[in-house]
Amino acid sequence: MKSGIKTLVLVLMILLISTALFAGGQSEEGVKPIKLGGVWPLADITGEQGSKSAQLAVDEINAAGGLLGRPVELIVIDSEFKPEKGAAAIDRLATIENVDVFLGGMSSGVHLGQIPTLKKYKKVTVWTGAASGRAEEAMGPDAAWYFHLHPWDYNQGASYVEGWEAIGAKYPDLATAKWFMAYEEGAFGTASFNNWVELWGDNGIVEGESFTSAAFGGGDYSAVLEHAKEANPDIFVWAGYAADALPMMEQTKAVGFEPKTYIGSPPGWPSDFGDSPLAENVMFYGMWTPEMNKINKISKHYYDAYVKKYKATPETYFAPLGYTAVYIIAEAIKRAGTVETEALIKALEATAYESPLGETITFGPSNIIQHQGIRRQKIIQWQNDKQEIIWPFEYKTSDPVYPFPSWNKR
Amino acid sequence: MAERILKRPLYIIVGLLSAAVIVLLLFWKPTVVVYGVQRAGLYAGIALPMALILGIVHIVNLAHGEFMITAAYITYFLCNSFGMSPFAALVPVVIVMFLLGMLIFKFTIKHTLKAPELNQLILTFGLAMVLTQGLNLIATSQPRKISLDFVTSSATVGETTFGTYGFIYDLAAVLILAGLLFFLRKTKFGKAAVAVGQNPRGARIIGIDVNKIYILVFSLAIALTGIMGVLFLTSQSIFPLAGGSYTMKSFCLVAMAGMGSLPGIVFASIGLGIAESFIMSFQGYGGWSNIVFFALIIIVILIKSFKGKR
Questions:
Q1: Do A222 and B35 touch (CB under 8 A)?
Q2: Out of A203, A228, B53, B245, which could bridge A180 as a Cys pair, Cβ 3.0 to 4.6 Å?
Q3: Who among A227, A250, A256 is closest to B151 (CB)?
Q4: Is the Cβ–Cβ distance between A245 and B237 less than 8 Å?
Q5: Nearest-CA distance from B243 to chain A in Å?
Q6: How far is B167 from chain A (nearest CA, A)?
Q7: Cis peptide before A247 (omega within 30 of 0)
Q8: What is the mean pLDDT of residues B87-94?
Q9: What is the average pLDDT across B280-284?
């Protein structure tokens, strides 16, 4: 009897072990996913929506059968807007998660902290954030595995000049000769102003003054706005952060300053900015707005899928940028037939992806790096709570409204 | 107090000179005075509760600005969820902040009252971190702002147009100061609080419940930061880290005015507010305003310590 029980236990154990081994073998050979490792600042709307959009693209790809017969898995780590956390995230994705490709990103400061770690692993990287030329210098010309989507600061500056010259030519009444820029006193604002003076100085009079951003304990713009009012510019532009947006508008109205054209240039807007009547006809720069749906079917597909999945609307261009990054990687993996680095780099170099941002994205050399994607920003204007694209004209969804309406006529 | 001032010719000279400077500025750069006084109201309104805590409980509250921002977030939540006006939210916010102050005092600060000052500083610094990170987790780092039409109110005098809403901070600061002075000088509880602030051991000997005074004064101060939090939300964007700089400025004002001196806070705020506004009125020199703020504080503290040695 006892030997019968022993035999039974032995048979059961053999069965269990062989089942586990068989299942494990299947997992290793058959359904091992292709892993994408993303890093975003998840507490910020750019990171939250960028990562959600990337997941949306992964879900769509898996629903269509995956890549190379394998499912795709997105592993997201929060950078918390901190360079050291961003770098640690890359380390974890490379060593513990063993991802095939890095993607994501927002903030030049965080990216500067990540670049030495990215260089250590030399995995294919498709990056959606970081505009600072300092990040490009830090990456250097030798990183063939590095594909950068977001325009560099000098790309953006050049596109603004191109855009305003085109707008000035098409709408001669919209004067662009005299500019006043209020800029936050940190690296972002100062670089924006210096770039602007360098790029625009020959074409018009550029005046400017710094202010302490609300993000750093400021929030009183009255003196700067009074100086801008005295300068009586054709175009007033402020370069600060989202925290400055509404207080800046409110104080502009309070001091009775009514510029002919009003531009705000924060990296992201507060989610409820458009609800304020003060937002009406403010212009700004960006790569995408929901109004793109009117002219671009990929944008429409993306927007509807995002709303269906998350019951919320994408509010920042970093959202479709995350979606775009995943599809660019996916198409390259299909072309390469492998996730092996050299083959994937070659396949990415052949990218011509029709994106929800409007552009067909291709990669080519920029000032330093080998693979730069997007090079232009768009000029956009708040009109009736919608973000209408004014320029480039091929993506135009509305004509510009000018001059900026009087505060009392809103 | 008036007699004390009249006996000190230096006070009279400084007072007359200040008045002359303000009159001169009103003709030369009127908006310097307008915005300087508005700024002073904000600084004083935030610093007064800190001075109250320092003067009576003898704690430097490094979570002061964070309490203000917590109140601003509660207001934002009430306005957004229930459609309340920020001013209607004032009453529930002040009550919630008072209770929060009681809870925090009872469970944390009370246990460090006899500990070395460094422990108290570390505790309140820790509280600041907990509040900031808590807000970050609940509300994210995304800036929030309620769009209100009345904050854009303005007035035009001659050719000068200026915003007038900032005077609400002056009104709040004056009411807080008057209320606190009345409370401390005219009420039995307030007099007991002053006695505790001057000599806690002596107060205990004569039968004052020192612990009760501490908890109520601390909670009252946190409730007053709640008022400033509500007003702050009406004109500024809020985000979890927004309070830190106001903790620092409040502490500097308290140090400049003399530890626990409430009227001194108001005078120091007016001086610094106008000085900052004056610097900012020169195009391109706005960045110097913070340097002037801290330089003035260093000078005043040095003069005070020099006089103290004599």
A1: yes
A2: A228
A3: A250
A4: yes
A5: 8
A6: 13
A7: no
A8: 96
A9: 90
- What distance in Å separates the CA atoms of residue B292 and residue B29, rounded to the nearest whole number? 18
| Per-residue pLDDT, A4 | 62
The number of beta carbons lying within 10 Å of the beta carbon of residue B302 is 10
d(CA A347, CA A331): 8
List, as ranges, residues 215-274 from A with C-beta within 8 Å of B.
Answer: 215-217, 219-220, 222-224, 226-227, 241-247, 250-251, 253-256, 270-272
- A212 with B140: Cβ contact below 8 A: no
Choose the closest CB to B153 out of A210, A254, A272: A254
Structurally, chain B folds into a number of domains equal to 1
Mean pLDDT of B4-30: 79
Lookup: tokens for A6: 């022993």
Q: Tell me, what's the pLDDT at A18?
A: 52
Cβ atoms of residues B276 and B293 within 8 Å = yes
For chain A, which ranges sit under pLDDT 50?
A: 1, 21-29
Domain-located, residue B214: yes
For B144-160, the pLDDT digits (tens) are: 999 899 999 999 988 88
| Residue in A214, A253, A275 closest to B152 by CB | A253
Question: Is the minimum CB–CB distance between A212 and chain B shorter than 8 Å?
Answer: yes
On whether residue B195 sits in a domain, the answer given is yes
> Which of B145, B228, B294 to mutate to probe the A interface, most A CBs <10 Å?
B145
Contact B236 A223 (CB under 8 A): no
Question: Which of B140, B162, B245 has its CB closest to that of A255?
Answer: B162
The alpha carbon of residue A227 is apart from the nearest alpha carbon of chain B, in Å, by: 7
Residue B164 lies in a domain: no
Domain-located, residue B222: yes
Domain that holds residue B183: 55-145+170-243
Helix/strand/coil (H/E/C) assignment for every residue in chain A: CHHHHHHHHHHHHHHHHHHHHHHHHHHHHCCCCEEEEEEECCCCHHHHHHHHHHHHHHHHHHHCCCECCECEEEEEEECCCCHHHHHHHHHHHHHCCCCCEEEECCCHHHHHHHHHHHHHHCCEEEECCCCCHHHHHHHCCCCCCEEECCCCHHHHHHHHHHHHHHHHHHCCCCCCCEEEEEEECCHHHHHHHHHHHHHHCCCCEEEEEEECCHHHCCCCCHHHHHHHHHHCCCEEEEECCHHHHHHHHHHHHHCCCCCCEEEECCCCCCCCHHHCHHHCCCEEEECCCHHHHHCCHHHHHHHHHHHHHHCCCCCCCHHHHHHHHHHHHHHHHHHHCCCCHHHHHHHHHCCCEECCCCCEECCECCCCCCCECCCCCEEEEEECCEEEEEECHHHCCCCCCCCCCCHHHC
> What pLDDT, on the 0 to 100 scale, is given for residue A202?
66
State which CATH number among 3.40.190.10, 3.40.50.2300, 2.40.50.140, 3.40.50.300 fits the domain covering A34-151+293-361: 3.40.50.2300
SS3 state of residue B238: strand
Joined together, the tokens standing for residue A152 give: 């560099």
Fold of A155-286+378-409: Rossmann fold (3.40.50)
Nearest CA distance, B108 vs chain A (angstrom): 28
Does the structure's ipTM exceed the value 0.90?
Answer: no
Helix (H, G, I), strand (E, B) or coil at B243: helix
CA distance A110 to A42: 13
B140 pLDDT more than 90: no
Torsion of CA A66, A67, A71, A77, to 10 degrees: -110
pTM of the model: 0.81
Q: What is residue A21's predicted lDDT score, i.e. its pLDDT?
A: 46
